[in-house]
Each structure stands twice: as C-alpha cells, then as structure tokens.
Write a structure and sequence with these properties.
By secondary structure, the chain is of the alpha+beta class. It is built from 8 helices and 6 strands. Strand 2 and strand 3 form a beta hairpin.
C-alpha cells in the first residue's frame, strides 16, 4: 500500500508556535468560535487565514470566500487579530532593520525582497523545515524498528510510504513520530490515508 502522511494546517501552527502560543487541534474551528462566534464558516475562516498568510489582498480574499463589504473586512480583522499578524510582521521588520534579513523558526536566514511577503516567507520556510524534521524522525523510527516500510518521497508537508501489508498497523505510531518535531513543544497533528491508483 502507498500511504500518505501529511500535516494539518502546518503554516498557521508555525505562526502561533513562533509567538509561544499553542494551537488547538482544529485551528479554523477555534478561530470561528473565538473571533466570529460562529458567524463565519470554518471553510471561510480557513480561506481567509491561508490567503492572509500567503500575502493575498482584499480582492483575492473576496473571490475565494464570497465575503464582501463589512463582512469581508471583519473577517480579515478577526484573522489578523487571532494570529497577531501586525505585531509579528513588526517583529520581522525590526529584524530586517537590524540584520538585513529574517530567520525562520529554526534559525535559517531568509532574504525577503517584497516586505508584503514577510509572513509568507517565514511560514513557508519554517513549515518546510518542521516537516523535514518530523519526517526524519519518522524515517529513523521505521529504520530502527526494521519495519517493511520504505519512504518513497516527500511533497512539502506530506510523506509517501510504500508499506508492506503486514505493517499497516504501524502507520499510527509513525504518524505520531511525524508530529513530534524537534524544537517545537506541541505535538503537531498529522493525518494518513491510503493512496489509491489504477
């Protein structure tokens, strides 16, 4: 069987972790509850969050969410507040003033030309490093236990495994290993699924 293991809402979790905050299991449901009292759907909260973290403007967010006017502006303000995007951006801008660049969560230096993309660059870079650390831990776990499971490759925040039928029962424990990332206190949630192909 080919099994995919991938992280749930990795970039938003990284942004919270960088501010010393723990993330709930379902970030988007939590945002809906805490910031919008259920007036925004989970799907809209997810779309606004991802759009803002990737540096999208108001027009793009309106297209992907269907929100307009004050409803759209309130959604953007709520997500900005939940993730403390303004204060985090200010911290990154201060870092650029002092050093000419920023460092991601794990200390890797990043040169950011477009300052509107500061959060995006930080989140993407940190997420890739987090995923690689989690996947390395899982691969070490597979190897040390002699499982008949071969890592095939990774795609950003997903790891594909070729799993002997007799070892499918170990996928949950391998997923837990992925969720334990060196340098991060919280266990990051991952999901696994079998990839069906013809």
């Amino acid at each position: 069987s080919i099994i995919s293991i991938d992280y749930s809402s990795l970039e938003p979790r990284i942004i919270l972790a960088a501010q010393g905050r723990s993330a709930p299991r379902d970030i988007y449901a939590d945002v809906c509850d805490k910031e919008f009292a259920g007036k925004l759907t989970r799907l809209q909260a997810k779309a606004v969050t991802i759009s803002l973290l990737y540096g999208a403007g108001e027009a793009t967010i309106a297209k992907v969410t269907g929100l307009t006017g004050e409803e759209l502006r309130a959604a953007i303000r709520g997500i900005m507040a939940f993730f403390a995007i303004d204060s985090f951006s200010s911290k990154l801008l201060e870092e650029i003033k002092l050093t000419g660049k920023i460092k991601n969560f794990f200390g890797r230096p990043l040169e950011v030309v477009d300052r509107r993309k500061l959060i995006n660059a930080y989140a993407q870079s940190s997420a890739v490093d987090a995923a690689m650390l989690g996947f390395a831990g899982a691969c070490d776990y597979i190897k040390s236990n002699g499982f008949k499971i071969d890592p095939i490759f990774d795609i950003h925040d997903a790891l594909l495994l070729d799993v002997h039928p007799g070892y499918l029962g170990y996928i949950d424990s391998i997923s837990k290993q992925c969720g334990r990332i060196v340098g991060l206190n919280d266990e990051f949630p991952v999901r696994s699924e079998e990839i069906c192909y013809v």
